[in-house]
Design a protein that fits this description.
With 82 residues, the protein is mainly alpha-helical. The protein is built from 2 helices and no strands.
Length: 82
């Protein structure tokens, strides 16, 4: 039942969240507490993956902007051993 969320894009993750929220509401209206807990766990995992991918996307955008501005994007990185 649990899907590999790492392979989904941000848009697909948002769609998955909407789908899971609908299922959670259905399970809630039927009093299915076991199913509700499983769906809530899936929603939490989806939210974590969505946050992670969004943050990575923001970091990539910042890196690209630095490159476009002619700056070294790795200037703030501490390289130990070099």
């Amino acid at each position: 039942m649990f899907e590999n969320l790492e392979t989904l894009s941000i848009e697909q993750l948002i769609e998955k969240q909407i789908e899971l929220r609908k299922k959670l509401m259905q399970a809630s209206s039927m009093g299915m507490t076991g199913a509700m807990a499983q769906i809530q766990n899936m929603l939490d995992a989806c939210a974590i993956e969505l946050r992670t991918k969004s943050e990575i996307q923001n970091l990539d955008k910042e890196r690209e902007k630095k490159i476009e501005d002619g700056k070294d994007p790795d200037n703030d990185v501490l390289n130990i051993g070099e």
